[in-house]
Amino acid sequence: MNVVVCVKQIPDPADPGALDPNTKTLKRDVKLILDESDSYGVEMALQLVDTAGGGEVTLVSMAPNSEVGGLRTALAMGAAKAVLVSDEALAGSDALGTAKVLAKAIGRAGDADLIITATESSDGYTGVVPEQIAELLGLPSITFAKSIAVDGGTVKVQRQTEAGYDDVEAPTPAVVSVTAGVVEPRYPSFKGIMAAKSKPVDEVKVADLGLDASQVGWAGAGQDIIEISQAEAREAGDIVEDDGEGFQKIVDFLAELKVI
Amino acid sequence: MTVSKIWVFAEAIDGKVTTTTLEILAKAGELADTVECVTTAGADVAAELGAHGASKVLTVGGTDGTLAGPIVAGAIAAAVAAGTGPDAILIATSYEGRDVAGRLSVKLDAPVITNVVDLVERDGGLAGVEPVFGGTTDVVTKFTTDKVNIFLVRPKSFAAAEAPTGAAAATEELAAGDIGATGTAVVTNRFVEEKTGPSLDEAAVVVSGGRGLGEQANYELVETLAKLLGAAPGASRAIVDAGWVPYSYQVGQTGKVVKPTVYIAAGISGATQHLVGMKGSKNIIAINKDAEAPIFSVADLGIVGDVHKVLPALIEALQNR
Fold it and tell me: Is A215 left (phi over 0), alpha (psi -120 to 50) or beta?
């Protein structure tokens, strides 16, 4: 069974983000790491290939500056190879432009039974790219998967809902997006980290994918940021050290607010 | 008005229109001459949607037992192609809503503006306001194409009409056309989690826990406190990622936005990702042992102390009242 996992390489969320004042895009010239949201998808893919007794996990990523840091992490976990799309023309890409690129790159990755993504990235969180990829590829999709199993030519998913979860199935190939925390991503072993250094990364540009620069990047985004402003800040109130009676202050506050 | 016609993707749970749909409907009425709804919930919701300002309800059939996103997107795209579509379509950031928006975006080759918390008029058209960097910065984005404007709107961005007075909406069927393999996902079973107490989105009081609780077993303190206060339990992304509680508990940028009367944050540092999900709460109480924790910059009452001491004492005091 072959699984393609779309992964995003993002600035470390622990570091504060910044907008480039000239282009109004997120600054991405810092070291990029594997988006934690994608570690669950990579783990699920590895488990599915394991269960199937054969096949491989291929990563697909769109990143600036030929960045491979995050890819090497996922390769170290056990993915076999990667397709990386890196091109200056991609700067400023919106969700749709990104989906077009990833859909083409998935085509390059070879036949896939399943295409796995996160539900949204940690830094962009538009949450629409998985569906856009599925539509571009003409495939069914199941989002917010808590668990995935593949039985013959059918993918069976427990899909999170407002009320609980649904059992959903679709014929493969299909796109499935996974929610966080549903599996424990494995730590790459030292052997895995060493092996990852020589696993193939097929690096391509927009033109190699048969896309036009006008469909991606700023040109293709079809939207303009017209204003950036400071949001209203909220002021802090009464902050006290707990002297053992801190809980009482909370009780009093709740009583004042008529919650109790 | 700013635009001629807006469509709102109206969702219902067990025949009742969702609060977010009504919030968005109210806003749409301020922006467009004509407001219509697209729904899979059938003609049953025409009265309620009409009361809240929809002049027509376009029903999409054939979605029972399927994931409706591709079918709804197909129906909307067909209407746009036939020239009967809207200037803009507003969709809630829900499970189904994201599916519809993503699929429609490709069918129309039109971008989506997401995470909208406000809609404003700019240069004779609509623009979406989106909070970034933990909600410290607002970004206003406008479409530059002449395609249908697709906006994904966050819950609690607007207020639903308090005393809706509109007449029942007329209904009309919207046909989806052939969507091929994209419509082949089927729902084989539905499981409803037994939930006692209010849902996170609607609760007047929310008690949330974070990594400061130390270990999964300690989340029980949050659950106990929530029960005592008739509150909904919530969580920071850190403990959802750690598998302590399900994603449906997550409050934050990539989780739910909540605006309760009281938000109690226990053992939560207040990373910007979390703040953006709760800093609209009327009153915020925070307990954290780190005096420098960012959560204290938004708390109305902050206790710098050990959650393992403060929570049990608080619970006991409440039980004894």
Answer: alpha
